[in-house]
């Protein structure tokens, strides 16, 4: 989940909309403490929106007070085990398209955009 950084683009620029996503599942060892810290750092509404848009999971709009292990496992799977292999990230604000190839989003901008 990255923010658009086209110069002058400051509204509706996060999260980037993901299109034609090609997902890949990888296995990452579950670490409960790490997962709890991660949840406190992510932008929850943006995370929920992205997970839903990708058809991965329907998470509660508000972060539950009680984060049980089952819930943390869900976050672990979404945030750490699901990789975006290919696709496009589109800014809702300025419509800039960032291509993702081999799991790496190309965040470089053309000279006219910086
Ligand atoms: Zn933008």
From TrEMBL:
GO BP annotations listed: rRNA (guanine-N7)-methylation; tRNA methylation
GO molecular function, one term: protein heterodimerization activity
CDD domains: Trm112-like
Domain of life: Eukaryota
PANTHER family referenced in this protein's UniProt entry, alphabetically: MULTIFUNCTIONAL METHYLTRANSFERASE SUBUNIT TRM112-LIKE PROTEIN, UPF0315 PROTEIN-RELATED
Family: Belongs to the TRM112 family.
Protein's UniProt name: Trm112p-domain-containing protein
Organism: Chytriomyces confervae
